[in-house]
Amino acid sequence: MHSENAKTPAPAVELPPLELLRSFEAAARTLSFTQAAAEVFLTQSAVSRQIQQLEASLGVLLFERRHRALALTEAGRVLQRAVVESLERLRDATARLRAAPAMRQVAITTTPGFASLWLIPRLAHFTADHPLVDVRVSATLDVLDLERSRIDVAVRFVPITRGTGATLFEESVMPLCAPRIAVALHVPGDLVEQTLLTVDMPNHAEAPTVDWEPWLEVMGLSDLRMKNTMRFTQYADAVAAAVAGQGVVIGRLPLLRELVQTGQLVAPFSEGAASRRGYFIETSRRAAGNPDAQDFVRWLRVEAEAAQRG
Q1: I need a labelling partner for 81 at 20 to 30 A (CA). Which of 25, 66, 74, 142 fits?
Q2: β-pairing, 133-139 with 166-176?
Q3: Which CATH number characterizes residue 220's domain?
Q4: Strand 248-253 and strand 166-176: pairing?
């Protein structure tokens, strides 16, 4: 049973066809079916029939037919104001849409560390060559569904055995620190007197040195314990702390190659180790129809090859 206070939605009012309104606007402005017919590319009799059809659908007269003259009725003046305003808004909106250039966009997802330490410092190279392309970067540790998230390209950081798509580069690791810290590091055993800079892993049961394990295994230092630890939620923050001289971070190469080349970070020990992880490029189905996304993938590979040579 319906409540007494429930309101029944008002039925939708059917609007007159646009071609009738265009003919009416021309006739109301010129007060001549003949001139209106010339504007809308119809015959005078066709315009006259359209006005009669419009009047019949509204149930009111819009014009007073006088001898060789037309005059708007009050209802005609009301409709004229509404139609003129509506047509002007439609023309303005259409002009804006036609004038606006089609948006060209490449959407990419990757880890915060790769985005801040490798991608963003190089991104100006791509945008300089593609000034009309909007690049949207989603930096997250979440593995986003490319199709559902409307993303063209993903750069995934995963173990080598789980990598899919094209390999961008594999990773090697070694301890890195500021030059003033390095002067006290002569052999790997000297790390016991230093501060460990590390990143909290999603699985808090993992040891804080999980990122160090490939290098520690190579050096035979699996039981190494450093003096104290500073934990960060993002790898880029741990790197910033290392640059500031607050401790030693496990350096992921080639992500940090530029910091080493500029001397902001140094490798106190020359030996590195493969981390058994790497960066892989995946593309979505939508990227196949986006030439800018394909250009972006080619650009990524060229930049990676250049970084490897450097």
Answers
A1: 66
A2: unpaired
A3: 3.40.190.290
A4: antiparallel
**Are residues 176 and 254 located together in one domain of the fold?**
yes
Question: Is residue 87 over pLDDT 70?
Answer: yes
The H or E element containing residue 257 is helix 257-261
Q: Which residue has the tokens 């690791």?
A: 173
Are 248 and 177 a contacting pair, CB within 8 Å?
yes
Categorise residue 150: left if φ over 0, alpha if ψ from -120 to 50, beta otherwise: left
Q: Residue 262 gets which letter from DSSP?
A: T
Q: Both tokens of residue 259?
A: 């910091």
Same domain assignment for residues 78 and 109? no
What residue numbers bound the domain in which 203 lies?
A: 105-309
pLDDT tens digits along 32-83: 999 999 999 999 999 999 999 999 999 999 999 888 889 999 999 999 999 9
- Assess whether 112 and 214 both reside in one domain: yes
Last residue of a domain, one of 68, 99, 130: 99
Mean pLDDT of 98-125: 88
Q: Give the span between the Cα atoms of 296 and 152, in whole angstroms.
A: 10
Q: Are 197 and 232 in contact (CB under 8 A)?
A: yes
pTM for this structure?
0.63
Q: Are residues 114 and 69 in the same domain?
A: no
Domain-located, residue 291? yes
165 is written with which tokens?
């798509």
Give the pLDDT band of residue 222 (cuts 50, 70, 90).
confident
Whether 187 contacts 219, CB under 8 Å: no
